[in-house]
Amino acid sequence: MNKGIAILVLVLIMQSVFGQVDEWNAKARVAVQSAIPRAEKDPSRPIYHFRPPAQWMNDICGAIYFKGNYHIFYQFNPFADTWGEVNTCWGHARSKDLTNWEYLPHAIVPQTEMGELRCNSGSVALNGNGTPMIFYTFVPANDSATRLGKREQWAAMAKDDELISWKRIERNPILAAGIKGIPESIKSGWSDPFVFKSGPRTFLTFKSSGGLVAEADNKELTSWTYAGRIDGIEGECPNFFKLGDKWVLLRSTYPPTYVIGQYLPDEMKFIPDQGKNGTLDYAYGPEQPSNWSRGFYGTNVLFDNDDRCILLGWVSGFREGRGWNGCMSIPRVLTLGEDGHPRQTPASELEQLRGKHNMVQESILNNEVLLLDNIEGDAMEIVVEFLNVDADSFGVMLRQSQDGNQSIQIKCSKGKLNVAGTEVPLRQDATSGKLKLHIFMDKSVLEVFVNDGAASITRVIYPGESDLNVSAFATGGEVTLRSLDAWVMKSIW
Fold it and tell me: Which domains does the chain have, with CATH numbers?
């Protein structure tokens, strides 16, 4: 029995123990199990990024550190490897180390008997009693399913410390059009509730709501009332939270963006700091993305016992028809730099996946391509530093073919970085003759962190399956390759 099927059998046993086996779950298990062989045959499938055993993965719709475990929740369509207007549920996994993940039973599934079409994104937070709660959007199947035929905000509560079993609270919906101060004119698509706290007060905000904010009326977080609006909340999956002495707003726009500022809860105002906004991740190619080619998107954050802010996102844009689609980004530690802008750095726990190591000593490249001996692969971590730039362009070529004609290029030229076709402007501190790239390449996923996380770029790539070489290059002059370290990465599966 392969590992994916063994995990599904474990899930079946766990669901039986907690009384969650029903017709929907049984059908979902069969659909996932039937897709596993096809998914496992795909050579482009990531090996150290989290993804379900098969089928379609969507937003990271909840994340929390609780009693020694990192828990992630994600939109999941167990019935196909494409987006599902119907039957999308919340998948669930946990990890002790942010690296090796254990699949768990679905946290919440659509209540089809109540006319629920699917469970949309949201967030997870502790209530005043220390109990984890899910906040999500009930999407109705027809106009009679909800008040005024619009989406509603619902909540569920964990029934055990393992967060295996969840039960929707009795007071659902917690918010709906025309009640508790929510305007009847609220857009029918309002969704993605995100919980944030300021002192003793707890709030919710949403997408497609004009920045609407609701406040909890009790510590159990089962009663909520309209509280006002916050300017600047756009896109999907808004994340709003305090980091140090600043407030951070993350927005899943095209591309995803951030705003740094101050929040005044008594006045219900978010005051952005001048110039402290920008692109969170350059997740797209040169053309406007198609509906599901969203790169790095659908983010969520958690704070762990070390008070690290862990940023997680959904990676999409993969080719269809392969039995799987979508994965999670590597976990990123989010901080604010001295310049007031975000820094994203890979979680140090990923270092345990490092296998065979090779390095390149300092070399001067003068209008040449240097094939790096003994450095090759399709699942690697690479750290490379350049300095003394006196060239028109320089960089590295990944997944290079034997004849050198095909590769995935990361090229710096005239103050801009081009990553597999995505152009990224470099800040002033990155154009002073030094460049550091921290690269994670995992089959079809490429994540690049520039100058200790001052910028990040996520791309989905499809090089030739046998194209495995790595080269460094300079054109039109000289550059010093100060160092390059490369590790072959182990699978987490």
Answer: 3-349 (2.115.10.20), 354-487 (2.60.120.560)
Between the two ends of the chain, the Cα-to-Cα distance in Å is: 14
Q: What is the CA radius of gyration of the chain?
A: 23
Secondary structure string (H, E, C) spanning the chain: CCHHHHHHHHHHHHHHHCCCCCHHHHHHHHHHHHHHHHHHCCCCCCCCCCCCCCEEEEEEEEEEEECCEEEEEEEEECCCCCCCCCCCEEEEEEECCCCCCEEEEEEECCCHHHCEEEEEEEEEEECCCCCEEEEEEEEECCCCCCHHHCCEEEEEEECCCCCCCEEECCCCCCECCCCCCCCCCCCCCCEEEEEEEECCEEEEEEECCCCEEEEECCCCCCCEEEEEECCCCCCEEEEEEEECCEEEEEEECCCCEEEEEEEECCCCEEEEEEEEEEECCCCCCCCCCCCCCCEEEEEEEEECCCCCEEEEEEEECCCCCCCEECEECCCEEEEECCCCCEEEEECHHHHHHEEEEEEECCEEEECCEEEEEEEECCEEEEEEEEEEEECCEEEEEEEECCCCCCCEEEEEECCEEEECCEEEECCHHHCCCEEEEEEEEECCEEEEEECCCCEEEEEECCCCCCCCEEEEEEECCEEEEEEEEEEEECCCC
Residue whose pair of structure tokens reads 């949309």 in the numeric block: 120
Q: What is the pLDDT of residues 198-253, one digit of tens each?
A: 999 999 999 999 999 999 999 999 999 999 999 999 999 999 999 999 999 999 99
With a CB cutoff of 8 Å and minimum separation 6, the contacts of 325 are: 55, 56, 57, 81, 82, 316, 318
**Each residue of 54-111: pLDDT tens digit?**
999 999 999 999 999 999 999 999 999 999 899 999 999 999 999 999 999 999 999 9
